[in-house]
Design a protein that fits this description.
By secondary structure, the protein is α+β, with helices and mostly antiparallel strands. The chain has eight helices and twelve strands. The radius of gyration is 21 Å and the shape is elongated.
């Protein structure tokens, strides 16, 4: 017998369609409840499950669950079109490069992180979850990056910003309604001032956390929208590009995402690759062109570093 009996397997296919289709529906309602917003982050995983379910239904000639799975697959494929089909834009010599990395406060792979950052060709580096231990371990970086602004903390929301170029001005401040910092700096680079904004809101778990994350994104959007200089916004946003609140952020600022149409690149939850998603972002104003983007190696953190290179238009 080429295929197993069909009828005993039909309930399992319907169960898969119900679970994955339910996840798809909840994602579409992401703007209305924080729990639904969490489902917006996994269209790749949900699409893979629905594709397998549809294929199984077609092979077993169980047409109804197969067609239902294909119908639920469509919204997830539409979401994935943000990254696919992937293409590599024409590259040229960059004017500068930046790195964003959540090092994880409890991570003790100091030498690995220091080696990666020291060997990079980055002009500016934003590090998150930096406490005093991390700043002490990364002190040798100042030989290459003499300009440093820092706000170490004992929780998971410390920040440090390293630059090879003079920092004209900087500011750390807490967003209203949030007790975690944001940093902005003006960096003098090749005769221009580049406005750099770094952020790390709280995870959107629970109604208060989600409200805080969303208010934080709105505050970053205001900073970026008011900027009249070439602008780079980077950090751990605790949101994927599919969250309606992250989409609001992009629409408000008209920033361009360095990850757009470059294929899916996960940055967080490296311990569980099946559920790994991209919540670390680097965005830029339209007077900059992104000439390259890379995800760095595993360095002991639950995040991976993200680097992007830019040229002035």
């Amino acid at each position: 017998m080429l295929f197993p009996p069909r009828r005993p397997l039909a309930p399992f296919l319907w169960l898969a369609v119900a679970g994955l289709g339910g996840a798809t529906l909840l994602a579409l309602l992401g703007r209305f409840h924080w729990l639904c917003d969490l489902f917006t982050h996994f269209p790749l995983q949900v699409a893979a499950g629905l594709a397998v379910t549809a294929l199984a239904g077609l092979l077993l000639r169980l047409w109804r669950p197969a067609l239902a799975a294909l119908a639920c697959l469509l919204p997830n494929l539409l979401a994935l079109s943000y990254y696919f089909p992937a293409h590599r834009p024409a590259t040229g010599p960059p004017d500068f490069q930046v790195i964003s990395f959540n090092v994880l406060t409890s991570n003790d792979a100091f030498e690995a992180v220091l080696g990666y950052l020291a060997a990079s060709d980055a002009d500016m580096i934003l590090l998150m979850e930096t406490d005093r231990n991390w700043l002490a371990a990364l002190a040798p970086l100042q030989a290459k990056y003499p300009y440093l602004v820092k706000a170490p903390r004992g929780d998971n929301f410390g920040m440090a910003f390293f630059s090879r170029h003079p920092i004209e001005s900087h500011e750390f401040f807490s967003v209203e309604g949030s007790r975690v910092p944001c940093v902005q700096a003006l960096v003098s680079l090749h005769g221009k001032s580049v406005h750099v904004i770094g952020g790390h809101p709280v995870p959107p778990v629970g109604a208060p956390g989600a409200a805080s994350r969303n208010a934080y994104l709105q505050s970053l959007a205001g900073l970026a929208a008011r900027s009249d200089r070439p602008t780079v916004v980077l950090g751990d946003f605790n949101a994927t590009v599919w969250s309606p609140f992250f989409r609001d952020f992009i629409e408000t600022t008209s920033l361009q995402d360095t990850g757009h149409k470059r294929g899916f690149q996960s940055t967080w939850n490296r311990y569980h690759p099946l559920f790994s998603i991209g919540i670390d972002h680097i965005l830029h104003s339209r007077d900059l062109a992104c000439t390259g983007r890379q995800i760095g190696p595993s360095l002991g953190s639950d995040h991976r570093p993200v680097s992007a290179a830019f040229a002035f238009r």
